[in-house]
Fold this sequence. Notes:
Bound molecules: zinc ion
Oligomer: single chain
Distance between the termini: 13 Å
Number of strands: 11
Order of helices and strands: EEEEEEEEEEE
Largest sheet: 5 strands, antiparallel
CATH topology of the largest domain: N-terminal domain of TfIIb
Number of helices: 0
Helix content: under 10%
Structural class: mainly beta
CATH architecture of the largest domain: Single Sheet
Strand order of the largest sheet: 10-9-8-7-11
Radius of gyration: 14 Å
CATH class of the largest domain: Mainly Beta
Strand content: over 45%
Amino acid sequence: MSRSAGAHTADPCPRCLVEEIRTGSLVPAAERDAVGYTCGRCRHSWSRPIEDDLDVYDIVRADLPERTLYGTVRQVEDDRVQVLDTNSGRLLWVERWRAVLY
Length: 102
Ligand SMILES: [Zn+2]
């Protein structure tokens, strides 16, 4: 499963299983936007749907460019969520597409 690598959490590629830090990228779509990932080793690419049922008090993980954030949702807006960082106890807004139910 996932493991910590510095400030980030690395995840295995679904095909070659090599663990890497992948923050993903927003892939706009007509019906439902998604988040796309590409494996740096085998070039396999995949995507996940954006969470559309996030709610207050949900536990989420968010892959930020500088680190992986774990916390509790406090507010939900159309394109962003406010998360209480479990580590620092600070509130911060993250782009909604980065948040994954944990
Ligand atoms: Zn791979």
